[in-house]
Amino acid sequence: MNNDYNENDYCWIKELMHYPETQHERLNFFEDTSEISLPEDPIERVIFQDRAKRAIRKIAQNRGHILMVGRPGTGKSMLANMFKDILDRSLGDYIRPKETIVAFPGKDKNHIRIAYEKPEILDKHILKVNQQIEAAKNSLEKFSLSDQINSVKKVKKVLLWATGISLAAGIFFPPAFIAAGLTGIGSIFMFMQENNHKVQEKIQRETRDGLKVEIKHLSDMLPEILYDPRKDRDMMSFISEPNSRNMKGGFRHDPYQSGNLHTPAHKRAFLGAHAKSPVIYVDELKTLVKAGYMSSMLEIMQSRKFILEGGKNAGSGSADRSENCLKADNIIIACCNHDTLAYLQEEGDGAFLSRIEDKGEIIQMESAVPETPENTLQVAQYIKQEIVNLGKEFKATWGQVIAKEGHEGVRRRSEHIFGRTLPADYKLQEREFSRKAVAEIIKELRCRCSDRKLSSLLRPINGVIKTAELEAILDNSPLVEPRHVRRALEEHVSLEGVLAREITEHKRDLKRYISSMTDSIGYVVGLAVITSKSSGQMFGQPLPIHCQINTGGADTVIASGKTGDIAKAAAQNVRASIKKILKTVGAPYVGCEMHVEYIQAHGGVEGDSASVAMDIALISDYIKQPVNQRFGVTGSLTGDIILAVGGVTEKIRSIMDPELAMEGACIPWQNKHDIEPLLINAEFEYVQKDEVPGIRIFRAEEKKDPFDIYFCKTKYNAYKILMGVGRQEVEDRMVERSRKDLRSVQEIKNSFQQTAESLVR
Questions:
Q1: What is the share, in percent, of the chain residues with pLDDT greater than 70?
Q2: Per-residue confidence (pLDDT) for residue 480, from 0 to 100
Q3: pLDDT for res 654
Q4: Mean pLDDT value across residues 585-605
Q5: CB neighbours (10 Å) of residue 282?
Q6: Which helix (H) or strand (E) holds 136?
Q7: Phi, psi of 698 (to 5 degrees)
Q8: Pair type for strands 692-700 and 704-712
Q9: Is residue 510 located within the same domain as residue 538?
Q10: Residues 438 and 304 placed together within one structural domain of the fold
């Protein structure tokens, strides 16, 4: 037996097969999620982030700052909300602002003064000022047009007398009637003018606009309330796009800047989050950096005060500012990704990070956690929380329909949504997850990670849980079962997942065509993976590779296409490994030109996980030994040893579809634990081919359609599985091929020499 494996190695593989039993024991405390109780402490409803939760509790105790660094979907926003709730319950009465912020006119029209006062005292002061202004209004003389009205009356009387006299004279002197007509018209016009003045006087007295204009200078002196703690009770401001206006505040534009219609600066002032909110949550710190607000934030965090300014805009408020400072003793909760953190470490020698660490902590959010009994319990708890949330959503959407029409009305209306007849006893009610369905979610979290860890990117799982619930409701199943979760997973794929499916369909036809057209020499099925940037989910796919060795050429390796630096380095590493074998066995070496082709990998290839596949394909072409096209292979080659790679679980899942006609895969020994989630809710058994151990998973019931997974320590183990030849046979055939190539090269050289000599003669 080869020394690559010992007795403990075979025992370890057999221990892998106990994983489903271990998982069952961990979940043995419930039959379905109805038996799971949720924690009363709201912060404990955020799962997997134990370090972050401990830090938040400490920071809530001393009013420190928090910077949460992690990928989207790890629970940063939930932790911020929970922090606000904890702070509100513990110190809310003391931290929440109690004073009203009020603005007064300043030394000139472009300056204001800020004051802090208790709301009750300020109310009394403003009431007193309003009373004085009202008294000033009442002390003013009433608006009157009596002088204009009296003068019009006098003219009207004169015209009326002249009209009467003209009529009398017209009896004796007819042309006088003309004068009577003119004076009559004039008297009528004066009558209309008198009525117009009376109407104007009445309107002005009723609206009192005249009084307002006369006392506007008094109204402009009235203080303006910028913040009233009795009306705004929220302790936290959520800022998605920080800038000077929503963080510090400013002055609004005044469209009426001329005459006596202008609005004074203190009445156009408004406050931002720094002045009003004890806690400021910056959802994405990258937006703060892009907006150029970082310098202002650092200054405010240091001094805890700031001057209210109009800013750099060209409006009327750009020149306005406050004469004194506003208080800004805020707790900063910020979130960012690792790329932003790297920028902050360089920007200003990490000044912002230094401010955070001065009174708080930088928290690294876990993107993956070990699969411990405690974390397994938290997954079940999380599923229960989502079930409760879904029940609330159903009630909010369909509550009125259920109250008026019952579940029968919901069924009839839902038939229009789904376009099919639903069962007579259909009820739109949340379903609990069975134990096996919970295990299926845990399986998915394991598959999306590696190193025996569970993925902490839970946001994409929320949609899977809800879709599984709807699948169970449509089946009228009392519980959510594993089949419902599997259906939901088929529907919930990211853009990269859809692309991976399309590529897999193409690779399936491509693989069949290649297998039918070639002798499988130099061809191998590698395994690749695509990672979703949004959800972090990985999608595996087969990667056909073709390699060939041309003897007598330049001593190089050529990897064509969009091949990344790491992949090119892996190809060079494979060439060095083959040369080492030839040197070890004492075979003569002639220059070899090695070609590596990733067949129709139009999107490019990066990484070293295909190095074992390249080595197998090159050796296959060198010794002319066909490769089993029904087995995939992945692994990083270092000398003769196969090292672990990422995404093994997803790579294997991608080729387990029976329609692809794959029968198994070879994976690195160090990735053996990545097979554990594939054993959940499946039948399997131990297998061994020569000295190489493996696990056979049955893809159909009654132990049908087997799929064998072998765990390889060295490339010779992979040779045994994929080409059916052992180490000694490979080395012997390589020596034979090398000697043959040497003879061919020598014959060619001799032929050239003879030709040259004949030409000389």
A1: 84
A2: 92
A3: 83
A4: 70
A5: 25
A6: helix 119-139
A7: -95, 125
A8: antiparallel
A9: yes
A10: no
